[in-house]
Amino acid sequence: MPNSVHCQTTMKSFIPLALLLTSVHVTTAGSAAHRCFCQVTGTLDDCACDVETIDRFNNKEIFPKLQKLLSSDYFRFYKVNLNNPCPFWTDHSQCGLKYCAVKPCTLGEVPEGLKSSSYKVLERIPIIIQFLALFVQVLSLNVCPCSDETRQALQEWKKHDDESDRFCMLDDEDSPKSQYVDLLLNPERFTGYKGPEAWRIWNSIYEENCFNLFLIKGQGFYRWLEGLCVEKRAFFRLISGLHASINIHLSARYLLDENWFEMKWGHNVSEFQLRFDKELTEGEGPKRLRNLYFLYLIELRALAKILPYFERPAFHLYTGQHTQDNENKKLLLELLHVAKSFPLHFDETALFAGNNKEAMKLKEDFKLTFKNISRIMDCVECFKCRLWGKLQTQGLGSALKILFSERQIDAMPNTSNTNPSFQLSRQEIVSLFNAFGRISTSVRELENFRSLLSNLKQ
């Protein structure tokens, strides 16, 4: 279950905000835009990049292309198990709010290429070829198929399926409980899910981020954070950035009005202020927004590094619609080339770069901690929140897997008759791009909120 060590100072930063959400209604702005964004500018910590460069690059270059790609069948249909039991506590109930519901796809709504699992065959063609070559070699050497040598060879062949290189837990797509969901028909937005149940999830996530460290009482949290190694500092900023991004989505797609003939969803400026205004968050809000940009750089870097994997002729965005599949691959490669062209990428080589033994231990702790956080998503009571929480944590986990698999990616062969040393499942691919789509949308929405806050009556 989640670590029993409590990040007390971290929680102190977030609990007052939870109370504000139920008791405060913002009616005046003063210098509202200044209070939310005054510190969201300039160079980011632990990076060579600045906020303004990210804004321009995302809003003009990345966001339009990414939205077009995510509307395609390959990326809009996501297979997920929303019925996994919570592994950490037993008093787990289901959200009764009507906006928490998720509508799964019927068989007729899912493209044939996905429904028939033909894409799995295509993904495994290089592996099948290598297996056949290995089998021929076994026969030519008159080696018993059950010999130790053969077992060892087959174990090496199966390495790509090993969970050890993953940073998150993935659902079993073959489980009868897993269902396809059309992400475009189940958008992430405010469902009314909040209060103690929602904060129990975030408290558990931040507890996992403690890395079993006890905090000195009375010490400022960010002073403590700056004293950590860069890896642990980066981990906290990733989780904080993800939290900020989700809060932006909920504020941007808020139920503003409901009557018998229509529902109006839109930007709730007051909700945004409650989550990010410097005065209403004890100075935390702008820091959370800066961490969003840090998360953006991490996921953008992963897209730049994975380009060779998708450039291979053997890779297909297979849905069974040949012409559209080819067009989508071209669009995907165009997007990845744009991502690679970004001038100030995050330098992941600074992570896990110390003493080799200590670095490997820290990397393993990093991986196990994030896997535990991905499992916490099965405890979210709102099904729509669970859907998007699972997708975004899996997407970030896939990005981390890419960042720390550089040797395997560089060693990938150009031919299709050799087993690649690096593999991504369709679930990882769909979550990777949709998770980045959520981060990209958050950055784009900040421009809208800046404008809305600036136009409020002073």
From TrEMBL:
Membrane topology classification: Peripheral membrane protein
Catalytic-site annotation from UniProt: C382, C385
Signal peptide: 1-29
GO biological process, one term: protein folding in endoplasmic reticulum
Principal localisation: endoplasmic reticulum
Cofactor(s) the record lists: FAD
Disulfide-linked positions: C95-C100, C144-C168, C382-C385
Gene Ontology molecular function, alphabetical: FAD binding; protein-disulfide reductase activity; thiol oxidase activity
Pfam families: ERO1 (PF04137)
Keyword Disulfide bond carried by entry: yes
UniProt keyword annotation of Signal present: yes
TM segment ranges: none
GO cellular component: endoplasmic reticulum membrane
Annotated compartments: Endoplasmic reticulum membrane
Keywords: Disulfide bond, Electron transport, Endoplasmic reticulum, FAD, Flavoprotein, Glycoprotein, Membrane, Oxidoreductase, Redox-active center, Signal, Transport
Binding site for FAD: R189, T191, W202, S240, H243, R275
Family: Belongs to the EROs family.
Name of the protein in question: ERO1-like protein alpha
Organism: Sinocyclocheilus anshuiensis
Gene this protein is translated from: ero1a
